[in-house]
Structures are given as C-alpha cells and as structure tokens.
Design brief:
With about 400 residues, the protein is an alpha/beta fold. It contains 11 helices and 19 strands. The two termini are about 20 Å apart.
Length: about 400
C-alpha cells in the first residue's frame, strides 16, 4: 500500500497545500503516466512529457461551489505512486461537503478535490515502492492513519485522530491491488462496501435472525445485499421513497419493503415494521438487529422502537452533529444497544473476495455514469434524489 500523489478523486497535495487530486486524465485517449524520464519529468512511452497534459479536477469551495479546474500532474515522491483514476463513485458525504461545507467537525476551509470511492491504474512509482508496480490495477482505501497512536497500535486505525482521509481537505489515500477479473467500477464500490462490512461486524448479524435496514440509498442497498449474503432473515428495508424500495425489491427479491409514513410517528412506524415480522404479539419474532443507514434522527428513533428487547441498532448513516430526541427510557428498559461506526478497518481484502467470488454482485447499483469533463453534471444529478439515481460514477476512459 502506498499513498497516491495524483488521482481522479481526492488525493494529492498541490504546492500551495490544496488537495489537487482528480485523475491523471490526458487529452490523448491511450496515454498512461508511465513513470519518469531522464530529466525527472513524467513521460509517456513515446516520450511525451505528461506533466504538460490536461488533468482536470472537481473541487469544492468554502462558499459551497463546485468547479472543474486543472490540477498539476506531480512526480511521485518516495513511497508514493501516481494513479490514473478510472472510476470514482459519488458519496453522500461528497454532497454534504458541497451543500453544507461540513460534516460534524470536518469542515471545508478552502478549495478541495472531492471524492474517495476510487479505482484506477498505477502509472508511476516513486523511490522505495516495492509492493506495487506500473500497470497494477488498484482500489483506493482513502484513509491513511498515523500508525503510532494507541488506537493504531490496537488495530483500530479507523479511529485514529490524525488520519488523513482523501476528499476531506486535503489528504491522500492508500491502495489495494484488485484482480484482473474485477472491473474498475467494482473496485470503486469497495469503499462503500467496506463501510457496510464494518457496520455488519459491529452490529453482529446472525444467520437466520431478522434484520431491518433503514434507508434504501446506496449504503442501505449494499447493507441489504450483504445482510442477505450473511444469512440474516427475514429482511425488511424502509425508506420514504417508494421508487427506491421498488429498486430494493428487484435488487434483493427476498426482502420485504416498508414505506415510512410521514403522518405517523416513530413508534407507529415501528409497530408497522414489527408487524411484518409477526412480532405484534410475539416479541421473540421482532428483529434482533437494525442497520440504520440514513443518520436521520427520526429514523434512528424508529429503529430503536423496532428492535426487539435486547436488540441492537447500529448507526451507519451520517447525520446531524447533535441528536436530541432519543427514546432514552425505552432503550434503557429494553436494553437496546445503540452502536456507531466510523468508516472501516481491515475490510478491503474481504470486500475484494466477496466481489471476486460472486458472494455479492453490486453492479446494478451503478445507475449513471459520466465522463470526467461532466463531473459537475454528475454531482448535480446525484444531489437531487428526485432524479432517481442510486450510485453515480465519474469515469475516465474505458472501464
């Protein structure tokens, strides 16, 4: 694993300290950034100086604008590799940074290249890089922990306070080699899959035990597929949008769906969900686990009332900084375990195996693809849920 110095979605420190990483895109369709020439400048095999070629990046500004601007093509330093990012997925957190300028204490204080769900090809290696070589196909694990704090030493590197996370102003990521049988689009789905895998591990799903997934966005749909693959059953997924639930039913036919009724409160919606499990008069049939994939306060509360006594609600979604209205006494008397996750740890090898082995097929989640020069349009589509997108990919060249 090695930090990426230039990529299509969130990893490279420009000389002024602004993250300028958005894909080694060139105006020559077949161009690869294949290492350095004798003068230290990056050159294509035919001798063309690649540092002079076009390298657009999608950046967010502190005043909630997004813009496509050129970024430098940097020569990789010691321990670094240079990537041509082939596919970047747009995450809900990218939209949060654009629209609100912050997620909790993580704030956009200047121009920053967005994106962290990425896969691409190694096109240049700096000194000391031994595990990767030019031509390797890789997926990007976007967080680089310090490796020295007590949390890193305990193996809980996802909680490192000094982590440098791609697309969160202004850091670089690390890499995992992907097999030739895996497409770049599948490689770009490994990051959201890793979020779900960590949530499932923390939430402790069990074979043959019921689970509710709150939210039918990309993370919720991946959670639905992963829960099914893990053997959890029955499966119920909820959302406000009936179209997304129809997609969920097609995606995982074994699930049941429930449209959250805006006119009802969390307790009433929870009762209706529990009824799908036959748990109105038999508490043992209520779902043992709830995977909350929206971060919305009312959904968390609904999940707390839905889980059976002694059950677990695992919050995977990202929401507001403060949640005020948790049903404290209900959760206390019923010993409802409310758990949270922060990103993931040690999930990439297992995620690659799950895709490669056919345990999970997430291809249908990618509903829209845009070339890099239309990245602003891709973000605009993704930010409007009425347009019906699930996962939007920004691509550079062939997949």
């Amino acid at each position: 694993m090695a930090p990426a110095t230039t990529s299509d979605n969130g990893e490279t420190l420009a000389p002024d300290g602004v993250s300028a990483i958005d894909g080694a895109r060139t105006t020559v369709k077949s161009a690869f950034l294949n290492g350095t020439g004798s003068n230290g400048r990056l050159r294509e095999p035919n001798g063309m100086d690649l540092t002079t070629l076009e390298n657009p990046s999608l950046q967010v500004t502190a005043d909630h604008m997004i813009k496509l601007v050129p970024a430098p093509v940097l020569t990789p330093g010691r321990g670094d590799v240079l990537l041509q990012i082939k596919v970047t997925g747009i995450c809900g957190s990218d939209i949060h940074f654009w629209k609100t300028g912050a997620i909790g204490d993580l704030k956009v204080c200047g121009d920053c290249v967005l994106g962290h769900e990425a896969a691409g090809i190694v096109v240049g290696c700096g000194e000391g890089v031994e595990e990767l070589r030019i031509g390797d196909r890789v997926a990007m694990e976007p967080g680089v922990p310090c490796g020295e704090c007590f949390l890193c030493r305990e193996g809980r590197y996802n909680l490192c306070e000094a982590v440098e996370f791609a697309g969160v102003y202004p850091y670089a990521g690390s890499l995992q080699r992907i097999p030739d049988s895996m497409t770049y689009a599948q490689g770009a789905l490994l990051e959201p899959l890793s979020v779900v895998m960590h949530g499932i591990e923390v939430g402790g799903l069990s074979l043959g035990q019921g689970v509710v997934i709150c939210g039918a966005g990309p993370i919720g749909l991946i959670a639905l597929a992963a829960a099914r693959a893990s053997g959890a059953f029955p499966l119920v997924i909820t959302d406000l949008d009936s179209r997304r639930l129809a997609f969920a039913k097609q995606f995982v036919p074994a699930c049941e769906t429930y449209v959250i009724q805006r006119a009802l409160g969390p307790q009433e919606n929870a009762q209706a969900i529990r009824a799908l499990f036959g748990a109105i008069e038999d508490e043992s049939r209520a779902p043992k686990s709830v995977l909350e994939c929206t971060g919305v306060e009312s959904s968390i509360v609904t999940g707390a009332y839905t889980a059976r006594r002694g059950g677990t609600v695992t919050v995977i979604g990202v929401g507001r900084p403060i949640v005020h209205n948790l049903p404290f006494m209900h959760m206390s008397l019923a010993e409802i375990h409310l758990l949270f996750i922060n990103r993931y740890k040690n999930t990439w090898p297992a995620a690659i195996s799950a895709i490669r082995g056919g345990v999970l097929n997430l291809d249908a989640l990618v509903t829209h693809k845009f070339p890099l020069h239309r990245a602003v349009e891709a973000f605009e589509l993704c930010s409007d849920i009425s347009k019906g997108s699930i996962k939007v990919h920004v691509v550079d060249g062939e997949n």
